[in-house]
Amino acid sequence: MTPSSSPTAEGVLPGHDDAGGHAEHHHHPNYLVDGTTVKSWLLTIDHKRIGLMFLASVLFFFLVGGVFALALRVELLTPGPTVMDAMTYNRAFTLHGLIMIFLFMIPAIPAAFGNFMVPLMLGAKDVAFPRLNLASFYIYVTGAVLMVWGMLNGGLDTGWTFYAPYSIHTTTTVAPVLFGAFVIGFSSIATGLNFIVTVHTMRAPGITWFKLPLFVWAIYATSCIQVLATPVIGLLTLLVVGENLFDFGLFDPARGGDPVLFQHLFWFYSHPAVYIMVLPAFGVMSEVVAAYSRKNIFGYRAVAYSSLGIAFVGFFAWGHHMFVSGQSTFDAGIFGVLTMLVGVFTAIKVFNWVGTVYKGAVDFRTPFAYFCGFLFFTVFGGMTGIAVGTVSLDVPWHDTYFVVAHFHFIMVGATIMAFLAAIHYWFPKMFGRMYHEGWGLVSAALIILGFNATFIPQFLLGNYGMPRRYYEYPERFQALNVASTAGATLLAFGFVIIAIYLTYALFYGRASGKNPWRSTGYEWVSESPPPTHNFVGPQPTFPEEPHYYLAPKKDEVKDV
Amino acid sequence: MAIVNETHTEHRNMQEHHGTARYWIVYGALLAFTLLTVITGRMHLPTFGLLLALVIATVKGTLVLLFFMHLIDHKGANRLVMGVSLLFVILMIAAPMADFATRFRGSNPPGSHVSDLKDLNFPEAQGDAIHGGSHDLKNPSTHP
Amino acid sequence: MSSAPAAHGAAPGPKFAEHFASLEVQNHAARLGMWLFLSTEILLFAGLFVCYACYRFLYPEAFAQASRHLDLTLGTVNTLVLITSSLTAALAVHYAKEAKNNLVAVMVGLTLLMAVGFLVIKGFEYSHKFHEGTLPGKHYHFAGLQLPGAPMYFTIYFLTTGLHALHVTIGMGVLGWMGLRALTQKSFGPNNYTGMELASMYWHLVDLVWIFLFPMLYLV
Amino acid sequence: MSDIANKILFLPERASTFADRVDVLHYFVVGTTMVMSAGVGLAALFFFFRYRRRVPNQTTEYVTPDLKTEFLFVSVPLVFFLAWFAIGFRDFTWVTTPPKDAMDVYVMGKQWMWKFAYPEGPNGVNVLHVPANRPVRLLITSRDVLHSFFVPAFRIKMDALPGRYTQVWFEATKPGTYQVLCTEYCGLSHSKMLAEVVVLAPEDFEEWLKEQQRGRLQGRQDALADTSLVPPVARMAEQGEKLAGSQGCLKCHTVDGSPHVGPTFLGLYDREEKLADGQTVRVDEAYITQSMMDPGAHLVVGYQNVMPTYQGKLQGPETAAIVEYLKTLRTANVREASPEGPAYDPIQ
Ligand code: HEA
Ligand code: HEA
Ligand code: CUA
Ligand SMILES: [Cu+2]
């Protein structure tokens, strides 16, 4: 059987030229125009609308975090004070880290695109617990407000890792910020829990476990981490707030507590959390590479299993953040080996993506440009992860700019590339409109270039010995810092261009048609944008695995 | 709307009707084990006292999980969830403990039995438990 | 959708959300969701268990001595109270399945009664500690036990039992709600008991945590 | 050869035996990283061009890897990674296990300076003297929060834990001066917590040591003489000292003469203080009280306005006690006021 036998493959083209213009063609208005009051958005339980609200929020926080990143870079232009004082700088990088991680990156792909796409990819009408889904959004908003309020009123200066005992003794505002992080944790848990149950109970007939789109596998693995790891950071934030207010002494060395134990608990969450940030990106890229090379995924099972492998082994590599913390040599050895194993799972994915392009039919569109960047950044960022995971090498590198460059390579290089690829790949699906391809490619080039210019100098700075979280630095580090700041400017430029043409496309872009990429991904089976209940008519069935391009397609959509 | 891989075991198991006897028997066992753990706990068995207590607690916990919480009737997925979380808890406890047990003695909290330093908060309680003072730092080994 | 469940029960039926394939799947989803939620609860407590394990490893002597300062009798009574309340919670589900709504309400009532008993006893224990001065961290001022690690024991004692007591309180809320439903709507029956079942699962988890806390705190 | 590599990679001068070991592995790992990323990138690029889409609805072969390929995907990286781990862990064990004949130096980090103490006697602030070609073990601790002792030229780093000791060792290979940086975030002036290691030729070191011991003996006698002159401390001042600790004054002010976030308390009372607005004031009870209640009113030159107000946090008698305490610091009555710090005994 071919996908063409699926009942909706030869669907109706929406073909409208303004939002919802011809929605009345079929009696099921698309989700964007089905109810236009503010209330119909704020109280919606439609996974697509919730996904969009998450998308808008995370974009907002990305902007805020990015502006602070630029402020940091500007401050680092000169060895001495440039535009702010030390206290402001310390608060700025704390705020940058906390916002980027908790308010942007963790919810970015799962809560925004996961929410939108997972039910569509499963042929379900919604997630398993729609109301919980909405609650998750409001919990996120509550936590975000608390956190931002705290950071504006006093500001936290501990770094995003809020290590004890500094965080216990600092005179800056600990309570609201960390309590905000605690609240956001619930949102993360709720979303993850929802997705796990959804994948277990909402798959349409035909979608067996090994016919799940790889994006769903990635989100599933991510959700497992979210559910299992987040409670620990929740507890820890509460304990630190408690310590700060009441002096329990749990992590305070002056009272017999152990600061290294704090780090164990912190990284028990925060190391797996980096896979919360990157696994969804891997999922997006699996979809993108298959769709644009019109090829089945090379080694589907290997990619699917490696997601679970990363999720599982990733839990037990946390000690690699603590090689020089006073942790025992024995533990360093255990965590060192496990760190290496995680790397292997990622390598499997990388090789299979390259294999997917092999003998494919590549259409070099914007998302694919991001895929190219992503591939390079993932290997380089990941391999530098392995480098710092090599116990003796981490001794000089720990807490220097080498580590900063490593994690930006993965978090910006891999995840943001995937986030941008996802926006561009699914933009027509979500809004039924097309953006300008030329600008897309130009900004992608700009971002990839700017990115390299920002963070490659930071690797060198790390080698050179510049510690992170430095407001001022010895003279000899200046040249590389200036290079990095210049790169960041380029990078910011790229984002501004994207913001402009996507905003334009949102209102004036030409209609995209149902499936402009001619992708066989499951989500494209329904309309673009999909109607409120995702399908018109009977529930679709999925006779083939996703991204199956073998048989000649007699009745495929001709052109857009 | 349908779903693939639908099985009916959980439904059937849950629907199946038992009397209340099962609950009472489990309750009895729980009471008995509580008694046992209190008695053995009062004996303050030297080394394995806490271990024994934890084993008993695990047995009690398993009974509650399986019968009161019906895990025995539920689907594999539910059991997997429980199993994985328990495994993670155990590993999460094991790694930091291994750390304390094997680190450089000077890095452990002063006053603890794996450290040679004095706890300044309790100077009078030093007694014989602490030997040697900071001189033992001279012993340049990583392991205790 | 079209394949609305045949299982759709009799008059006071369960709420069926139409995005599920069948009531059966819906129930499974609810249970799976609950198990996942419980697993987050377990990991929440696990953070404190890690602290306990490590500090008990570091200060075995202080922990043993400090634990003698707890009231074993009260602790044992509390354990029995909680186990019994677990039994009544389980029975409540049993009767819910049999549509004996009044009995459900009775069982829930008994459970709540024991929960209150548990908290009252806990309150006595706490107030005793406040008097003695065996308080966490900085606030520890008990002259009778001056050992490194003793304040840490009480820090952990208060944190674990405090978090547990918070869960007891939440559990009471959830159970109380279900008890009210049994009383007012009388709607529990063979096809509609998931609410009661989930509430009782939560309660059993609270019990489960205590089953471990009891030997850890009272019997070291 | 390796000098060129070091230039390209911006690696600092290599001045310890550990640095030699680290750098070799460094080249290996970073080299492989570059080769692999370039390799993967180029392979992908090549495929993009080789397999361009020719017709819109082009179909493709269904290609899946065979077992051998999958095995390769797993085993090649695994072999590399495990090899790196093995070498890296061996070196790490080496650097955390000091040789028995190592010379000990005690290192204490505090906000925001490094102090060094030698078993033989001398102490030092922000400058550590060590002999070349002799293993030196650092026993590192902290007085307040976490710090980390980092010498790029030696490639060593170790965290300083308050109240605990961590250890690391090195053997410097050539005389010279090398920078020490604090790499664990420790608050406001984290980036200013710099120090130096001065590596001396063994003979020079012996010489230096002798000189230090002479000077130290002198200093000790002075200190003894001073303390004997100090009148018994009044109860109020004693209480003030406690308050200064518990209210956090000592987080920002020292009592040993070194500037911190705020000016030192040592010799504060009765001092002529230069203010940021150009005026000078004589520090008296009123000025100290005002500094606590309204710190922004008079800014001392060279300091930032970061001191929190204690209005409402301190009661009248408490304020008075602190003032009394500060008055006792007029003399050279220097003691390590360290209410919660570690046991830090300079070793005899
Ligand atoms: C999305 C986020 C993300 C991801 C995915 C990763 C992935 C990895 N990270 Fe990273 N990391 C961070 C975010 C992330 N990290 C952050 C935020 C920090 C700093 C936190 C802080 O202190 O503030 C950090 C810090 C950090 C450290 C601590 C450094 C220090 O502070 O001293 C270490 C140490 O081991 C490490 C290791 C790794 C490893 C081994 C991986 C692996 O998962 C990478 C695996 C990938 C690959 C290995 C690439 C593919 C491989 C191939 C194609 C192989 C081909 C090779 C051959 C054939 C030889 N990371
Ligand atoms: C997801 C995580 C994430 C992301 C995306 C980034 C992005 C960036 N980060 Fe950062 N960073 C962290 C996570 C992240 N960072 C963390 C965790 C730390 C450690 C903090 C700590 O030490 O505690 C850190 C620390 C850190 C430092 C080190 C500070 C120090 O140690 O002293 C620096 C310095 O250069 C830096 C720079 C940057 C730059 C230039 C970017 C750039 O990539 C940013 C580019 C983005 C923009 C310029 C915004 C432009 C956006 C728009 C125009 C809006 C678009 C709008 C629509 C599409 C609608 N980051
Ligand atoms: Cu000391 Cu940073
Ligand atoms: Cu990590």
From TrEMBL, chain A:
Residues 1-20 are annotated as: Disordered. It is a multi-pass membrane protein. One of its GO terms (cellular component) is membrane. Keywords: Electron transport, Heme, Iron, Membrane, Metal-binding, Respiratory chain, Transmembrane, Transmembrane helix, Transport. It comes from the Bacteria. One of its GO terms (molecular function) is cytochrome-c oxidase activity. GO terms for biological process: aerobic respiration; electron transport coupled proton transport; respiratory electron transport chain. The keyword RNA-binding does not apply. Its main location: membrane. Residues 41-543 form the Cytochrome oxidase subunit I profile domain. It holds the Pfam family COX1. It is found in: Membrane. The keyword Transport applies. The chain crosses the membrane at residues 50-72, 92-116, 137-156, 176-202, 214-241, 266-290, 302-320, 332-355, 367-389, 401-427, 439-460, 480-508. Belongs to the heme-copper respiratory oxidase family. This is Cytochrome c oxidase subunit 1. It comes from Stigmatella erecta.
Automatic annotation (TrEMBL), chain B:
The chain crosses the membrane at residues 21-41, 47-68, 80-98. Keywords: Cell membrane, Membrane, Transmembrane, Transmembrane helix. It is found in: Cell membrane. Its main location: membrane. One of its GO terms (cellular component) is plasma membrane. It comes from the Bacteria. It holds the Pfam family COX4_pro. InterPro entries: Caa3_sub_IV, Cyt_c_oxidase_su4_prok. It is a multi-pass membrane protein. This is Cytochrome c oxidase subunit 4. It comes from Stigmatella erecta. The lineage of its organism: Bacteria, Pseudomonadati, Myxococcota, Myxococcia, Myxococcales.
TrEMBL record, chain C:
PROSITE patterns: COX3. Gene3D superfamilies: Cytochrome c oxidase, subunit III, four-helix bundle. Residues 31-220 form the Heme-copper oxidase subunit III family profile domain. Keywords: Membrane, Transmembrane, Transmembrane helix. GO terms for biological process: aerobic electron transport chain. One of its GO terms (cellular component) is plasma membrane. Its main location: membrane. Signal peptide: none annotated. It is found in: Cell membrane; Membrane. It is a multi-pass membrane protein. GO terms for molecular function: cytochrome-c oxidase activity. It holds the Pfam family COX3. SUPFAM superfamilies: Cytochrome c oxidase subunit III-like. The chain crosses the membrane at residues 32-55, 76-96, 102-121, 156-180, 200-219. Belongs to the cytochrome c oxidase subunit 3 family. This is Cytochrome c oxidase subunit 3. It comes from Stigmatella erecta.
TrEMBL record, chain D:
The chain crosses the membrane at residues 24-49, 70-89. GO terms for molecular function: copper ion binding; cytochrome-c oxidase activity; heme binding; oxidoreductase activity. It is found in: Membrane. Gene3D superfamilies: 1.10.287.90, Cupredoxins - blue copper proteins (2.60.40.420), Cytochrome c-like domain (1.10.760.10). PROSITE patterns: COX2 (PS00078), COX2_CUA (PS50857), CYTC (PS51007). It is a multi-pass membrane protein. PANTHER family: CYTOCHROME C OXIDASE SUBUNIT 2, CYTOCHROME C OXIDASE, SUBUNIT II. Subunits I and II form the functional core of the enzyme complex. Electrons originating in cytochrome c are transferred via heme a and Cu(A) to the binuclear center formed by heme a3 and Cu(B). It comes from Stigmatella erecta. GO terms for cellular component: membrane. It comes from the Bacteria. This is cytochrome-c oxidase. Keywords: Copper, Electron transport, Heme, Iron, Membrane, Metal-binding, Respiratory chain, Translocase, Transmembrane, Transmembrane helix, Transport. Belongs to the cytochrome c oxidase subunit 2 family. Coiled coil: none annotated. Residues 100-211 form the Cytochrome oxidase subunit II copper A binding domain. The keyword Kinase does not apply. The lineage of its organism: Bacteria, Pseudomonadati, Myxococcota, Myxococcia, Myxococcales. InterPro entries: CcO_II, CcO_II-like_C, Copper_CuA, Cupredoxin, Cyt_c-like_dom, Cyt_c-like_dom_sf, Cyt_c_oxidase_su2, Cyt_c_oxidase_su2_TM_sf. Residues 235-330 form the Cytochrome c domain. Its EC number is 7.1.1.9. The keyword Transmembrane applies. Its main location: membrane. One of its GO terms (biological process) is ATP synthesis coupled electron transport.
